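Input for the complex:
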Amino acid sequence: MTASQPLVHAQDVTMRFGGLTALDNLTLDIRAGEVLGLLGPNGSGKTTFFNVLTGIYKASAGAIRFNDKLLTGLSPQEIYRAGISRTFQRSRLSLPLTVFDNIVIGDYQHLQRGMIFNLFRRAAFRAEYEQAVERVRQLLAIFSPPLLDRLFEPVGTFSMIDRRRIEVCRALMSNPQLLLLDEPSAGMTHDETHELMDDILEVRGKLRNLTVVLIEHEMNVIERVTERCIVFSYGKKIADGSFAQITADPVVQTAYLGEAA
Amino acid sequence: MSTITPSLARGRGRGGVAIQIALALVVTVFLWLFLQAKSQIEVCVLLVLAAVAVFAASRFGLTERIETATRTSPRAGPWCALIGTLALIAAFYDVHYVLLLICTVLLFSTACLGLTVQFGYVGIANFAGAAFFGIGSYTIAVLAARTGIPHLLLIVLSGVVSAAIGSILILPVLRTRGHYAALVTIAFGILFHTFVEVNNVLGGPQGLHLPGISTFGYSFGDGFTLFDQDVSFYVPYALLSVVIFGAAYGVIKRLERSWIGLSMDVVRTDETAAATFGIHIARWKVIAFMLGNFLAGVAGSVYGMMTGFVSPDNFTFSDSLLLVSIAVLGGLGNPLGLVPAAFIVLVLPQKLQFIQEYRFLFYAVVVIAILLFRPDGLLPRRTRQFFNNEVSR
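Predicted:
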């Protein structure tokens, strides 16, 4: 894909909740293969952008194109099938279900869902199931080998960092083109965040076409892993560039620290 | 991961089977004594005995060993339960009343299998279980009287009608969640009760008489003679109930251990995450709701034919509550827990007639006590194993 052709192109996207404008005429590009950081103070619209992009919210105005396909108006299910997958700021795993259950559901589109197949063709189901176990194991082997031994334990018994890893694995299970990570460091220690980021970078090194967009508050994480950053403030894009560029930008400094006295 | 050598695992498996057979034997003998107990002293002694046994078992680690056994050899449990049930039916071959109780437990358990799919898997709390049960009874009552369709086919048809009538609720159930969906079903249950009460074609408050099942020229109501003994006419119904419950149990268990069961569980636990990963939320809710109502309708049709009479007062809101309480008491989402729960909810009050009005009080205390000590129900649902011989630790 040429650099001139962005993977995602959002044009004048506006999202209103009653009187509140969470996204205000937002226009931005996500380039294929990059690691893009989304920054901005709390409430600046970063997560809202993810929710609009994945179809959980319907934009009040504007259009988002993904590989030139118009996403606006599509259901979350259709957007998932188009190749976008995500994690959530607050973990959204199914706690009573096992690690395997939670990860394998990430590839729902490729699981056979016919009644006859699932209920009565158990030998064929078993073959598909064993293949799925193998694929989950391979993913965990890259991402978090210690979890392999606990594949059939309920997720509720795991620590925060393991749950994040499971969530990332679930998002990667469908081989998405675009992976959205919503504050993966939330609720984790400094070291744990580093570990998780290393894992994500390692996986990305192995899956060449993966584009990653990351919402993050920890500046050292952003500095280390992102190639480009976009800064939001009050639902608007106020800066776009490398980490060094945006941190030097006076507009960004004002947004974070307020007007100089 | 699996450090157990095959021979060791097999040895442990065999021990597990032995424990389960022993347990089934003890439970069957206990139920045999309990069901035939007539005097209040007998019933009291047996109840105290049961309470002491349950307490001692958990005190001396027996409960844990039984749980390990059912996990290492999960196939044995259901078969032991089946053989135990058949043994009880054989033991009480000429006692109408006890056989009626056994049939009631099995048929209500079948209806609760439906609730398990709706409530336990996909997360729709259905408080109109008795209405769908009743639709099954009324359907077979009308069709058996007015058409010549074979009765076995009518049983299936009653389930279909129940699911079809239930489909008018699909839209409101899909648009609401949690308590609000429950409210929709409560309203439907009341609507059904009122409808059959005022509808003269369906017999109004007096209800309808049913002819009893006859199939391949044999009428269930005639009973039969075996080894020169008159066998109760409830025995064929009991056997049919066993078959229906067994088949439904098999299907529901397989459903749980499939991508469908997994998808339903994800819909229940987090709809937003489910949508994000492409899961067709509406599809699984509709399938679960229809399947559940189908099972309730099938159970209702056999129950109606067995009792020979349907009336609106058999299908009130409190009967729906009874079904929900069985599903919850058994351990929501675990089909195997339904039978002991149905037994406690349906049989215990019958056996406690000697304390008259206090029996409901006592029964309520028992239910509360069980949920106090086992807040997830008698047999809580375990994490999914897609296949039996998976060594998961």
